[in-house]
TrEMBL record:
Membrane topology of the entry: Peripheral membrane protein
SUPFAM superfamilies recorded: Thioredoxin-like (SSF52833)
Gene3D superfamilies: Glutaredoxin (3.40.30.10)
UniProt domain Ribosomal protein/NADH dehydrogenase: residue ranges: 20-93
GO CC, alphabetical: mitochondrial inner membrane
Described purpose of this protein according to its UniProt entry: Accessory subunit of the mitochondrial membrane respiratory chain NADH dehydrogenase (Complex I), that is believed not to be involved in catalysis. Complex I functions in the transfer of electrons from NADH to the respiratory chain. The immediate electron acceptor for the enzyme is believed to be ubiquinone.
Compartments it resides in: Mitochondrion inner membrane
Protein's organism: Rhizophagus irregularis (strain DAOM 197198w) (Glomus intraradices)
Listed PANTHER family: NADH DEHYDROGENASE [UBIQUINONE] 1 ALPHA SUBCOMPLEX SUBUNIT 2, NADH-UBIQUINONE OXIDOREDUCTASE B8 SUBUNIT
Entry's family note: Belongs to the complex I NDUFA2 subunit family.
TM annotation in the entry: none
Protein name: Ribosomal protein/NADH dehydrogenase domain-containing protein
Keywords: Electron transport, Membrane, Mitochondrion, Mitochondrion inner membrane, Respiratory chain, Transport
Main location: mitochondrion
Length: 94
């Protein structure tokens, strides 16, 4: 089974923070624009919260069972590396 299908099984929530104009967030913006629809199709009831704010650090917040959270900083990462960081978060709880 693909890690994309495990998203809603292993995580309770995914929050994505990034700046809409910063070059450091360009990989996150590209990842979201190319992958958001497919992630939601594979996990229709899973909350993916996207927060754009000027000047913020690009990062994922993954919430697991029992309120445990993990933060990953994504500044200056290309979209492919952003995807691999999300895959690590999903597979971490397995």
């Amino acid at each position: 089974m693909s890690w994309r299908n495990l998203l809603s099984k292993n995580l309770k929530e995914l929050r994505v923070h990034y700046c809409q104009t910063s070059p450091a967030s360009s990989g996150v913006r590209e990842f979201i624009s190319k992958n958001y629809v497919s992630l939601k199709e594979a996990n229709p009831n899973f909350p993916i919260l996207i927060r754009e704010a000027s000047g913020v650090e690009a990062r994922f917040f993954a919430r697991y069972d029992f309120g445990k959270e993990e933060k990953v900083v994504l500044n200056n990462l290309p979209a492919k590396d952003v995807e691999s960081e999300l895959e690590k978060l999903v597979n971490k709880s397995v």
